[in-house]
Amino acid sequence: MKAIGIGIIGCGNVLDAYLPQCERLESRGAARVHVACGRPAQRERALGLGARRFTTNENDVLHAPEVDLVLILTSMPSHARLTREALEAGKHVLVEKPFATTLEEADSLLQLATRKQRHLACAPFTTLSPTFRSIAQIIQSGRIGKPCSARARYGWAGPSWADWFYKPGGGCLFDLAVYCVTSLTGLLGPVHRVMAMTGAAIPRRMIEGRPTAVEAEDNAQVLLDFGDRCFGVVTSGFTMQQYRSPALEIYGTDGVVQMIGDDWDPDGHELWENRVGAWQVFKETAPDWSWTDGLPHTVQRLREDKTPEVNPRHARHVLEILLAAQRSGASGSAIDVISRFDRAPCAPLPGSDPAHLQHDRSRPHPPEH
């Protein structure tokens, strides 16, 4: 199988997380990073992280004949435009979240990807983690009975290096809650209705030493109606200094399952079954799994001429939920969610060592050959 040619647009902080994946792909002959595009000040950083060629012109990536897959790691408001231009250039696209900030943009991109017969892989990739799949299998097998309620949370004190996080097109819903909503809908299916409370709890922020007015929500509580009287709540914000309790929990009629750690950085799971009458703790079996796993997954599927498992219609549904939360937060009313997506059954990922055989989290499991 040929190596997939990769071009990167965006050489900011997120690039640090993706380049190790690129290095592993290159070492296996699966992919090759040909060119990276960023601001002039990012040249040395991008080249030092492994890009072969650097440019400040997006078109040098979009129209490079050796590039099969464009990796978009720019600020959120630019994602839709760059995704459109890459698809129009005939490239497959992996784009960080959210892939669009309006439903009109999202629908247009899905139609364009179909028309161009290109794959569109949209972050976040929480549904690819082995821990997510283990929890999904527990739910699907009925071990906790009928799911009745759910809770998910992701937040921190907030970025201090760029003001676009706090401007229209940014905010904690698009940047943080998107993970929680992706995971909950991946486990429980589409949402039918949304109600939310949102606001700017900290109206001014210090960004690179300058005071900046906050124009997007930095604090949100989102209530989700999954139908059949199953409800969930997402807590998110640039207002959380730390937390220690599980970041995702599903409560059923016969038990409870909860993820240890964040859904983008899981550390195992815990299970209560009424028939057992005790908490069961399951150690993380893929300690080296990364939230950037969508890249090696997409590369492998492209090499196999298969569709990536991450469904862009799922990402579109999540976007509709986040936009509904914004509208609900402003109006105080519940908002119906119209779209649906097909939720594929989660199959176990092969190759993980049993938990008792893993002792060094710095090494891949199983070891790469």
Textual characterization of the structure:
The chain has 369 residues and is of the alpha/beta class. The chain folds into 2 domains: 4-125 and 293-309, 3-Layer(aba) Sandwich (Rossmann fold); 126-289 and 318-336, 2-Layer Sandwich (Dihydrodipicolinate Reductase, domain 2), CATH 3.30.360.10. Helices cover 29% and strands 25% of the residues. It is built from 9 helices and 17 strands. The chain has helices at 15-27, 43-48, 58-62, 79-88, 103-116, 130-140, 172-188, 294-303, 312-331; strands at 4-9, 31-37, 54-55, 69-72, 92-95, 120-122, 147-155, 193-199, 204-207, 210-213, 219-225, 231-237, 248-252, 255-262, 265-273, 278-282, 335-336. It has a 9-stranded mixed β-sheet. Strands 3-2-1-4-5-6 form a 6-stranded parallel β-sheet, with helices on both faces. A two-stranded antiparallel ribbon has the order 9-10. Helix 5 links the parallel strand 5 (92-95) and strand 6 (120-122). Helix 4 runs parallel beside helix 5 (103-116), helix 5 packs antiparallel against helix 9 and helix 7 (172-188) crosses helix 9. The longest helix has 20 residues, at 312-331. The chain is globular, with a radius of gyration of 20 Å. The mean pLDDT is 94.
